[in-house]
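Researcher: Here's the sequence for the chain we discussed earlier.
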Amino acid sequence: MKRGLTGQYRFSLVGGEKVKAFIPKPLPPHPHIRMDGTFQRRLEAAQLALGRLDSISLLIPDPYIFLYSYIRREAVLSSQIEGTQSSLSDLMLFELKGEPSVPIDDVVEVSNYVAAMEHGIKRMKEGFPLCKRLLREMHQKLLSRGRGSQASPGEFRHSQNWIGGTRPGNAHFVPPPPGEVEDCMSDLEKFIHDEHTPYPALIKAALIHVQFETIHPFLDGNGRIGRLLISFILHNDKILSEPLLYLSLYFKQHREEYYRLLDSVRNDGDWETWLDFFLYGVEQTARNAVETAKRLHILFTDDAKKVESLGRLTNSALRIFECLRERPFVTYNEIKKRTGLTLPTITKGMSGLMGLGIAKELSGKQRNQIFCYDRYLSILNEEMEM
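Model: Thanks. This is the structure I predict for it:
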């Protein structure tokens, strides 16, 4: 349905140029979303896929293992959309204090993203509401180090930003003037917590994502916070017990269509086409995540059985294997810290795991060696390239 312009343009002078900035109307859309039979089937398919994703904790004894890897996978993908070159291996090596294969600024940027995600998850588990303040706190973590650290971390912007082009005067899109940002975000916060909205959480998440991207409240990092917001809305509304749905890969694969549909919502009020695109992405992403979890569960179970064939080494090797399940990259010192095993015992146990093809040494050094659970990492990387 084409409702027409979903906001108003306001002209102002920026750097001596006349600039046309867009101020969105508060949510929800008017008229209401048209939820016909086709739309309902798409919504139901997405909700079913999300339900299966949420039940992942029944499949994996420790769902934190899956959350750990998926947070980092999303951090890499979301940051790649913004132009970084860091891989999942680079990030995990950086966290282990190893040597990444890309510029350190790229890895720091991804590591900041992990910190922002984990901060948001922790705060919400403590009962803190999903609100403007939490988004600012996450933004502060996101831009705490490296590139972007001069772009007012943790603050809504006080100057005009733009999307596309070299300046506001020739930009593809100019978000609201800085003086409108606080009011726009307050309206968005009200909609997030509106218990009387007629829309289910999935539709709310889709509407809120577009509105946030349109407001673009920060000088930098809007895309990453906006993509995180989707999963946090579903977690906040108790659709997901853990924020496990991350759409960065889907948006990356369909980048041109994604930006076209955002423009279509703003200029034409065509929320339905955006929602169809969004719901299909949720369904596919949730299905892929469930399949990945199943593959990891099978891998962990099969490899644990292999470890049990090591005779006298079995007990210590299983404890080392558990470390590799939790973190695909480890060092002897890290294993010692986490298990309390002696260095000779760790050395023998790791040799057993390497003999089984479970672990692989990466550094080629005699000291400060780094070991990798190669097949675990391969499954995560394979899904990132789908």
